[in-house]
Specification:
The protein is of the alpha/beta class and 467 residues long. Helices cover 38% and strands 20% of the residues. The strands form four sheets. It has a seven-stranded mixed sheet, sandwiched between helices. Strands 7-6-5-8-9-17 form a six-stranded mixed sheet, sandwiched between helices. Strands 3-4-18 form a three-stranded antiparallel sheet, with no helix packed on it. It comes from Streptomyces tunisiensis.
Length: 467
């Protein structure tokens, strides 16, 4: 997952911090550098707004539908702002804005169900649902708007209020989104705060926060859980993955090549559930490597605002350094770059789309989450060997199996230790399905009704049965 946030340069008087365009490596705008002590007022206002927001489900539905319409109306401005600070191609930013609106619309029409309890006693019992209170949503830089909506849409639909903090690498589009939504939501129901550390640490440990939902790295996720434990706040943690794709020996290499390539390289590989390790039957290994390497060599890499660009830059300098270090270490350990393997010349944070072969299976580029445009392709001799390797890391977000016999592929997918598995595609989610990882990939569930109920508390009411 994304790197942790940059450390603050001690300067208490600073009111703003620079935002860098990853296509140039230069600052082009500033964002408010809010201080931790400002959160007391923000959370107090969210607490007071909660008392009215939680009481009227019909008004919430109307407001969230209006919010979706407002996001769509502001789509062009939001998309351009997102590309400028995140780096992804403009078409992908438009798609992210569309998914943000779609998520608001989905949760606007989702309501918890009162459930009777029939246990044979002369009592009429029902499970009802209550909101929690102010929710802290901490969002990374790879999909700032989409992941923000994945957190605040179900929280708001459940009757909670939200304090949303984007990454300091990508604060601008989220601030714009907050302004768009402020025009249609009641005051203080959704508040966007921006700033560098320790703002996030204070937010997740604040005693007024009742639920913390965080997406980011495993070490930061553990720190978030420890901080939230002080006030016994609920936590939902999506901590990324080192997703595997296993190709079977009957796979149509050319037929899946484009889907497989983009499953690994979309958004410059900066996707928590992107394919980050590829296991291939030994007899097909050379064909698969050359097929993917050819695409890596010819894909159009450039600034996201250029209509010809298919792959943008890495988002930030620390992440570029991480990708470069992992690649350099793999090459030093004997790996070979069938394509790429190096940073591109010129300004900005560009790294050549990279396909690695002859990679030692214990290389960090295999065992860790590189979160960049680098894909190690590893041969296997037996399916048992491939499954053991696939399950051999601490991650367990997603995985996929590719072949012409879907029943056989499904049998292999059942053996993967992950929260979601796909057959002949990867990283495709619907709004209605749960999204969760196992092992170090997270705690709790997002998406669909499960995401809604994760923002609710059961309330059981007993009364005597009527005669």
């Amino acid at each position: 997952m994304p790197t942790t946030e940059p450390e603050r340069v001690p300067d208490p008087a600073a009111a703003r911090f620079p935002v860098v365009d990853p296509a140039t490596g230069e600052a082009f705008e500033e964002a408010p550098d809010q201080q931790p002590d400002e959160l007391d007022t923000v959370i107090d206002r969210a607490q007071r707004a909660w008392s009215g927001w939680r009481t009227d489900p019909a008004a919430r539905t109307t407001a969230l539908r209006a919010a979706a319409d407002a996001v769509e109306a502001a789509g062009e401005d939001l998309a351009r702002s997102l590309t400028r600070e995140q780096g992804k191609p403009l078409a992908e930013s438009y798609a992210e804005v569309a998914r943000t609106a779609a998520r608001l619309r989905y949760f606007a029409d989702l309501a918890p169900r009162t459930r009777p309890i029939d246990d044979g006693r002369p009592v009429r019992s029902e499970i009802r649902w209550r909101s929690l209170g102010p929710v802290a949503a901490i969002v990374p830089w790879n999909f700032p708007l989409q992941l923000a909506a994945a957190k605040f849409a179900p929280a708001l639909a459940a009757g909670n209020t939200v304090v949303l903090k984007p990454s300091p690498f990508t604060p601008l589009a989220t601030r714009m989104l907050g302004s768009v939504l402020a025009a249609v939501l009641p005051e203080d129901v959704l508040t966007v705060v921006t700033g560098r550390e320790p703002l996030g640490a204070r937010l997740v440990s604040h005693p007024g926060i009742r639920h913390v939902t965080f997406t980011g790295s495993v070490p930061t996720g553990r720190a978030v859980a420890r901080a939230a434990a002080a006030s016994l706040a609920r936590v939902t943690l999506e901590l990324g993955g080192n997703d595997v794709a296993v190709l079977l020996d009957d796979v149509d290499v050319e037929g899946i090549a484009d889907r497989l390539f983009w499953a690994a390289f979309r958004n410059c590989g900066q996707v928590c559930m992107a394919v980050k390790r590829l296991y291939v039957p030994a007899r097909l290994h050379a064909d698969v490597v050359e097929t993917l390497a050819q695409r890596a060599r010819t894909v159009a890499v450039g600034p996201g605002l250029d209509p010809a660009t298919q792959l943008g830059p890495v988002n930030n300098a620390p992440q570029l350094a991480r990708v470069e270090d992992l690649t350099r270490q793999a090459l030093a350990d004997g790996a070979r770059a069938a394509a790429g393997g190096h940073r591109l010349d010129g300004p900005g944070y560009f790294f050549a789309p990279t396909v690695l072969v002859d990679v030692p299976p214990d290389s960090p580029v295999v065992t860790r989450e590189q979160f960049g445009p680098v894909l190690p392709v590893l041969p296997y001799r037996s399916l048992d060997e491939a499954v053991e390797a696939a399950n051999g890391t601490g991650f367990g977000l997603g995985g996929s199996v590719w072949g012409t016999d879907p029943d056989r592929a499904e049998a292999v997918a059942e053996r993967l230790d992950c929260g979601t598995a796909w057959i002949n595609h990867h990283a495709e989610l619907s709004l209605a399905q749960p999204f969760a990882g196992v092992k170090d990939s997270g705690v709790g569930v997002a998406g669909g009704p499960w995401g809604l109920y994760g923002n609710l508390q059961p309330f059981v009411l007993h009364r005597p049965s009527e005669a």
